[in-house]
Design brief:
With about 250 residues, this protein is an alpha/beta fold. It contains 12 helices and 9 strands. The protein has one domain: TIM Barrel. The chain has an 8-stranded mixed beta barrel, surrounded by 4 helices. Helix 3 runs parallel beside helix 5 and helix 9 crosses helix 10. The protein binds guanosine-5'-monophosphate (2 copies), manganese (II) ion and sodium ion. This is EAL domain-containing protein.
């Protein structure tokens, strides 16, 4: 397709950019980390949503090249922020193709080494769907053994099977924004949300609420003991330079 041809050239043509969305600890009011999110602006098609081109990149295997570029770009930016004194974490989304690649562990290790970043500042985000396709947990354990952390992304939208929580070395659960969205007006969603938070706490996992847009949502999450907040309420995903202002000003 036209879109696929264009995507093949996007990297060379400098059309890709990594945006960053802050993750805030609302208890301490600090930005504790950011999530790297890939953006593509094509000269003709304009901004192509990731929901459109990421699946295309996954189907064709192009995600290996793009994912590696995002990883290196994000870790490089992280180094810049660390040197400036912002000791934040960097979360990067990995798709199943990347996890299944025989050299994924070396790829991540060398990206960290080249930038001189302590692995504990890197978080790999995997969806439940990715874990289901991972078959065995060995690869995820190897990655985790590098010293990085693993987040279970979009939690609640897949099978939410306790089997994955049992078998995979998870450090953090990211509550999908559909729960955050419904929590303040749909009682049974509020109950599910509360259950996810308590599950995470019982397991001693970090828990992050995604897609937070209102103070009312924050208040409810805080009451449940979920202090880590990500969403438009603080910032949309933005270019690195725009985050500097938020770092300086605080939240
Ligand atoms: O940024 P936005 O919320 O529009 O992203 C839409 C989807 O694209 C999300 O599911 C997000 O995880 C995915 N996505 C964004 N950037 C990357 C990336 O670098 N790698 C992978 N695998 N997925 C990404
Ligand atoms: O699937 P994943 O969680 O990796 O992707 C995050 C997606 O959620 C990105 O596309 C990002 O732009 C989007 N996002 C982040 N915060 C908000 C929010 O507060 N509201 C909405 N509607 N989307 C958000
Ligand atoms: Mn994510
Ligand atoms: Na998510």
């Amino acid at each position: 397709s036209n879109l696929l041809n264009a995507l093949h050239q996007a990297l060379e043509k400098d059309e890709l950019e990594v945006y960053y969305q802050p993750k805030v600890n609302y208890y301490t009011k600090e930005i504790t980390g950011v999530e790297a999110l890939l953006r593509w602006t094509h000269p003709e098609f304009g901004k192509v949503p990731p929901d459109k081109f990421i699946p295309l990149a996954e189907e064709t295997g192009l995600i290996l090249k793009l994912g590696n570029w995002v990883l290196r770009e994000a870790i490089h930016q992280l180094k810049v922020w660390h040197v400036e004194g912002n000791l934040i974490t960097m979360a990067v989304n990995f798709s199943i193709r990347q996890i299944q690649h025989p050299r994924v562990v070396q790829t991540v290790q060398s990206a960290l080494n080249d930038a001189g970043i302590d692995p504990k500042y890197l978080e790999i985000e995997l969806t439940e769907h990715t874990l289901i396709q991972s078959h065995d947990a060995a690869k995820i354990h190897e990655l985790k053994d590098l010293g990085l952390t693993i987040a279970l992304d979009d939690f609640g939208t897949g099978y939410s099977s306790l089997k994955y929580i049992k078998d995979f070395p998870i450090d953090c659960i990211k509550i999908d924004r559909s729960f955050v969205d419904g929590m303040t007006h749909v009682p049974h969603i509020a109950a599910l949300n509360s259950t996810i938070i308590h599950l995470a706490k019982q397991l001693d996992y970090e828990v992050v609420a995604e897609g937070v847009e209102t103070q009312e949502q924050i208040d409810m999450l805080m009451k449940e003991g979920c202090y880590c907040i990500q969403g438009y309420f603080f910032s949309r995903p933005v270019p690195a330079a725009e985050l500097q202002e938020l770092f300086d000003r605080g939240i």
